[in-house]
Amino acid sequence: MSSAPASVESRPRGNYDLVLAVFVGMLLISNIGATKLIAFGPSVDLAGVQLLPIITDGGAILFPLTYILGDVLAEVYGLRRANRAILTGFVLALVMSLTFLVVDAAPPAADWPNQDAWHAVLGFVPRIVVASLFGYLAGQLLNAVVLVRIKQRWGTRHLWVRLIGSTVVGEFADTLVFCLIAFGPLGNPLGGESIPWPALINYTAVGWLYKVGVEVVFLPVTYRVIAWVRRHEPS
Fold first, then answer.
1. How many domains does the chain fold into?
2. What is the pLDDT of residues 205-229, one digit of tens each?
């Protein structure tokens, strides 16, 4: 007697959906946190270049972890499924931004006193939305491509080279595109004002170095996450 086919629930399932959900969740939370600029330290200039204060945004707290998960997606699941996750995140981030814009434009109830606070935090200006979306898309796609290309060239050896190399390229593209659109000359057609070049260079350099530094610090964690995901993949 032949056994009945396994039901959908009893079939072994991997963790792609879990990694995808956490990846997208971190992306959305980071985009909201990025609406606040943060400065650390006194004002210090050297030859016209602003060294201090260190300028970053609230998204820097969590956003580097999305690159760790992006590395997991590309390393374990390959370029096609990594790109699927990246595009899913892009679409949902776009939906989030458009939803906030519509809610911000909607008339508040007469007895609701927080419209100004809502607008100040979540009333994204168009250039910030465009900068965030295109910076993320450029950075994550490059991160996945570089990791997979290094793996194809060198094989499965030297995982740390793939993880750090892809992050250096991806985070640079992400930070540069975001800063040039959000606070630099590329965003001027979208409205708003640009910040001075010394502050823009500081913001870009600090953001890039910080994100790469987080990747390096969390390298042992990334190794363990990749190993855990691989062990629990039926394929």
1. 1
2. 988 998 899 889 999 999 999 999 9
Judge whether 112 lies within some domain.
yes
Residue 85: Cβ-neighbour burial (10 angstroms; 0-12, 13-18, 19+): buried
Q: Is a pLDDT exceeding 80 seen at residue 169?
A: yes
Residue 115's domain spans which residues? Answer: 16-37+56-231
Burial environment of residue 7 by CB neighbours within 10 A (0 to 12, 13 to 18, 19 or more): exposed
Structure tokens at 143: 């991160």
d(CA 196, CA 27): 28
Whether 34 contacts 174, CB under 8 Å: no
Are the beta carbons of 141 and 87 closer than 8 angstroms?
no
pLDDT at 14: 82
Distance CA 192, CA 216 (A): 35
Instruction: Record the tokens describing residue 53, joined without a space.
Output: 């204060």
What would the pLDDT profile of 86-108 be if each residue is shown by its tens digit? 999 999 999 998 999 899 999 99
From the number of C-beta atoms within 10 Å of its C-beta (0-12, 13-18, 19+), residue 136 rates as buried
User: Residue 71: which of 231, 179, 219, 189 has the closest Cα?
Assistant: 219
Is 45 within the bounds of a domain? no
Is 9 a residue whose pLDDT tops 60?
Answer: no
Domain contains 43: no
Q: What is the DSSP string of 158-207?
A: -HHHHHHHHHHHHHHHHHHHHHHHHTSGGGGGGSS-PPPHHHHHHHHHHH
Give the chain's count of helices (H) and strands (E): 8, 2
The three-state secondary structure class of 44 is strand
Inside any domain, residue 28: yes
